[in-house]
């Protein structure tokens, strides 16, 4: 009997160690599950199909922005312009329809192209102009928001029917959820299945070592911010499609939610780590927190306090995890 206990004890310890390691690497998922259980106990109306779909819609725009932000944070960068770039892409798309009479499908291409162009300019300033990412994207945030106001003259502009599809449903499922899933798959594919994705991790891990190993660091950085802008353009179209118009103040503050979703999802601000699945979980977690607090009639002011605490805990958890791994 003693011998059996002695042989099973190491096995049990090994199992507990594996569970603990999995929980450590999937803290956002564990937190999301526990949060959903807690909210279901507090209010059974939380886990209903209509509310789950509502959470998906709420998470969609932030998740799409966050997928683009994942590329940036993997390379140890930051992009403060994505909210404004999303608004600019949507506004130029709407303007091209309302004033230039472009076909609907072209207005979508224009919106995506404007977002990618804005991101590329930031990337060029960072890679070749040697500007810090914080400064370059802060400048782009101001430029994009200003251009949005110039194009719109401070008033909303109706979007094309093609863009409005982003606010519709297919087989009962909102199109923003489809767009979120598609963006997530593209993000996952780039990070895990392409040379560009592997180069992003290398640049974020050690930029000098990446350069010495032959990786075209400057080109990689331009692509990173161009992709962030492209995803921002898509997020802007989804937001405009839901509202059936492009607003000059759309997307304000969304860049902070995008950064929060990536960090909560397990990416390190120091670079070199980050996953599309983690980012998706982080975006859904933020949406669940807001949705749950709304159902519980918690003030929107306190919601900001809760979100801030969650971000602080996520960053603290990342620091603890890196210290443990080292």
From TrEMBL:
Keywords: Cell membrane, Membrane, Transmembrane, Transmembrane helix. GO terms for molecular function: transmembrane transporter activity. Its main location: membrane. It is a multi-pass membrane protein. The keyword Cell wall biogenesis/degradation does not apply. The chain crosses the membrane at residues 22-46, 52-73, 80-98, 104-126, 133-151, 171-191, 220-239, 259-289, 301-320. One of its GO terms (cellular component) is plasma membrane. It is found in: Cell membrane. CDD domains: TM_PBP1_transp_AraH_like (cd06579). This is Sugar ABC transporter permease. It comes from Brachybacterium muris UCD-AY4.
